[in-house]
Amino acid sequence: MRNIQLHKLLFGDVSNSISVVTSFLQILFQSIPFFVGFIVLEFAVSWIQKRKLSGRINDGISSLSLGILSRLPDVLFRSLDLISYVYVWDNYRLFELHWHSPCTWYLTFLGVDFAYYWFHRISHEVNILWAAHQIHHSSEDYNLFTALRQSVLQRYTSWMFNLPMALFIPPSVFAVHLQFNLLYQFWIHTEVITNLGPLEFILNTPSHHRVHHGRNPYCIDKNYGGALIIWDRIFGTFEAEDAKVVYGLTHPVNSFEPILLQLRPLAHIWNMFWATPGFCNKLSVLFKGPGWGPGKPRLGLPEEIPVITGKEVPYNPSVPAYLNCYAVIHFAVIMDLYIDLLATVTVSNPCLYEIVRCKYCPHFKGKIVKEHGSSGTCKPKAGILEIIRCLIFLGIYKLGYLRSEFSFLDYSYEVRHLF
């Protein structure tokens, strides 16, 4: 069935673009097992290279939770990227490039990556867009988990950058490159790959993207490319990897809680907006860079970027080993159910919201290992939220809306809630 859907997308009638193109989004969902496999491989290679794992449990679960949350709109709605693109194609296209022409595919590859470069760059240079995108940069680790650390809101700003291509490029061709461009960016979030030789001049590589994720002064606002680094070289935003990169935001958030990470940047802009005097200055808070302030350049002052001392320690509160084990086991169950949700649920399902509420409860669970006080102990509310989460799971499970593809998970879930 999956092969038939792909064949229809690549070779079918593009006039029925909505139904055909949206089916291609399943490729992203079908890639989840490969994501997991590469994460395991990265851990193994990191251990061989450094006798050290490439990530931490708390940060990894936080990144995966943010990734789950970011895909929630795909469960409830069709892709805004594709809906808007198909609308422009159906109503305003100037001419139609032949989908079977190699030139069309090469041009679309360049066009999608060019559009991504400018979307990505503007997301760093416009404060209201940075409020969404900075979630991806909030991890102080750099590994394949980080690639899945995404914002819920970012998809509602990226779509407009692709619309010029809808004037002449068929939606089916665009959809292929949109997804493959996104999938390409997964593997470059790693430290286990060093330098790729001549490919470094053309492709966006792990080395280039490590710079992009750094908070060192030389890393700020550099290397925006998706699959290609040529746009950064052309437009003056390229920077080669030099000094050891320290990852994360210039002002670390010191939290692993997914909902807080999604909302805190918006709250910060809201407070700045009302605290800044003058109507024009208020607009500047929204549409100039995150480092801007009255009397400063559009992107702020470079000298105000915190200096890296080399003694930076990632936020890593102490958690008992049994809580880490508890979190990993519960999250494994949730991931299995989440994959099933993406594969089977439709917006016509009357039980959709109950299923979504249940399957996205890792954000309740997240508090038990991610939100800690300054003393490094769990906050009292974490236990209460965990009890609520388990009760919700139990209720939805008893109604028959939760079933894992792995029977032993169903059994373990049943046994676990007998106590």
TrEMBL record:
Cofactor(s) this protein requires: Fe cation
One of the record's GO molecular function terms: iron ion binding
Domain Fatty acid hydroxylase: 106-237
Subcellular location: Endoplasmic reticulum membrane
Enzyme Commission code: 1.14.16.5
Transmembrane regions listed in the UniProt entry: 27-48, 159-180
Reactions catalysed: 1-O-(1,2-saturated-alkyl)-sn-glycerol + (6R)-L-erythro-5,6,7,8-tetrahydrobiopterin + O2 = a 1-(1-hydroxyalkyl)-sn-glycerol + (6R)-L-erythro-6,7-dihydrobiopterin + H2O
GO biological-process terms attached to the record: lipid biosynthetic process; membrane lipid metabolic process
Topological type in the membrane: Multi-pass membrane protein
Keyword terms: Endoplasmic reticulum, Iron, Lipid metabolism, Membrane, Oxidoreductase, Transmembrane, Transmembrane helix
Chain ranges of the Alkylglycerol monooxygenase C-terminal domain: 323-415
GO cellular component: endoplasmic reticulum membrane
Any matching Pfam family: AGMP_C
Function: Glyceryl-ether monooxygenase that cleaves the O-alkyl bond of ether lipids. Ether lipids are essential components of brain membranes.
UniProt similarity note: Belongs to the sterol desaturase family. TMEM195 subfamily.
Protein name (database record): Alkylglycerol monooxygenase
Organism: Apteryx owenii (Little spotted kiwi)
Highest classification ranks of the organism: Eukaryota, Metazoa, Chordata, Craniata, Vertebrata
